[in-house]
Design a protein that fits this description.
It contains ten helices and twelve strands. With about 250 residues, the protein is of the alpha/beta class. Helix 2 runs antiparallel to helix 10 and helix 3 runs parallel beside helix 4. The two termini are about 30 Å apart.
Amino acid sequence: MFRLYVTALFLVSLLARADEGLVFAAASTTDVLEELRPAFTKATGHTVVVALGSSGDLARQAMAGAPADAFLSADVARMEAVQAAGLVRRGTRVDLLSNRLVVVVPVGAKGKAPGKAEDLKGLKRLVLADPGIVPAGVYAKAWLEKVGVWKDVEGKVVPAVDVRGALAAVEAGRVDAGVVYATDAAQSKKVRVAFEVPSADAPRIVYPVAALVKGKAPEVGVAFVKFLQTEPARAAFRRHGFVVLSADEGTKAR
């Protein structure tokens, strides 16, 4: 059976076995990978453990020796770091998905919700996934810098461990608003979207995926990467709000 775990390096090392693959995946892909769990095993006969978290943390774990067989990152920079370390299996890396940024507020929030970036200056607390390392936060900071409000809101930013942590802070009402992916906002009944970041102002969001060379089940890693490119998997990503990149939009396997 396909099992889904949120775990740290010392745990994934114990979970990984030679007869099942270990996949590192961005936290924002939690729900869609959970939906795909029966299909992968049915299609390939393989089983995998999925370790979810910040792509930055997962990349560091892979480079520190964690035996991951595949890596689905929420940004290109983390995958580039892993590839530069010689860990990407040649010919398997592709740019798979894209996403959108939205500003969310608690569903029961009183008062006027922000409607544009400028309105964020008036908030007391704004949560982002850690803009120093987590892709969702890096993307959000890049947007806020582009529209000229980062310096005004920087002191109000509450950094979260990953994008799901940022969403949870908004759901709990611990902050006035947060910047998360549209796919995360869509799965929550405790937040509402105040506005979507205009595409003209947003950085390009890309999720690359690749099989890695240091895992204990390399054939499973390769199979998983190929499976994510099949039409059933692509359809599941679309249902969850992701933009599925074509071969022309993304990067062909390398």
